[in-house]
Amino acid sequence: MTSFQQFVEQAGRPISLAKGDHLFLQGDVDSSAYLVSTGMLKAYYLREDGREHIKSFLPEGSVIGSMVAMLDGEACTFSLVAIEDSEVIALPYRQLAEAAQGDLALANSLVGFLAAYGRRKERREFELLSMSAEDRYANLLAEMPHVAERVSQADLASYTGITPQALSRIKRRNKTR
């Protein structure tokens, strides 16, 4: 009985990343799934004006890959960079999908992972479209305090969808309450 994470750990290829190293850039074609063993990554979109919009932070135990690249062979829609020295395990999605066809436990684990991924994306979309910046920041602190302590003010602001100055004002208001 093999779980999705166990399979990636056993069949994948370890990669060491220094802080600032990219696994892939927006526009690259990379069909691998990545499991973060140590350190932290961030996934971000690069806007036409050159600014970053952070999609997610990925601490130890996280799995990520570009769904459009893995499933459709298209270019990655976001970039993936180490924000700490990190160790990841890379596994081509095709290898995972082929193995899941012959292993019911692995297939069920993969379905569970994809369902959890869909839930996270829906929650993130709701945050960005329906919540105030102050509520998004409070949500980040409540749900991912271990991440908030490890990333820069600029990255926290980008993830929240505001400027670093606006985040400073929110933090100041929170201290006075």
For this entry, give a set of tags.
single chain; 177 residues; alpha+beta; Jelly Rolls; 2 domains; four-stranded antiparallel sheet; globular
Note down, in words, how this protein is organized:
This protein is α+β, with helices and mostly antiparallel strands and about 180 residues long. The chain folds into two domains: about 5-120, Jelly Rolls (Sandwich), CATH 2.60.120; about 130-175. It has eight helices and eight strands, in the order H-E-E-E-E-E-E-H-E-E-H-H-H-H-H-H. It has helices at about 5-10, 65-70, 95-100, 105-130, 135-145, 145-150, 155-160, 165-175; strands at about 15, 20-25, 30-40, 40-45, 50-60, 65, 80, 85-90. The strands form two sheets. The chain has a four-stranded antiparallel β-sheet with strand order 1-8-3-6. The chain is globular, with a radius of gyration of 17 Å. The mean pLDDT is about 90.
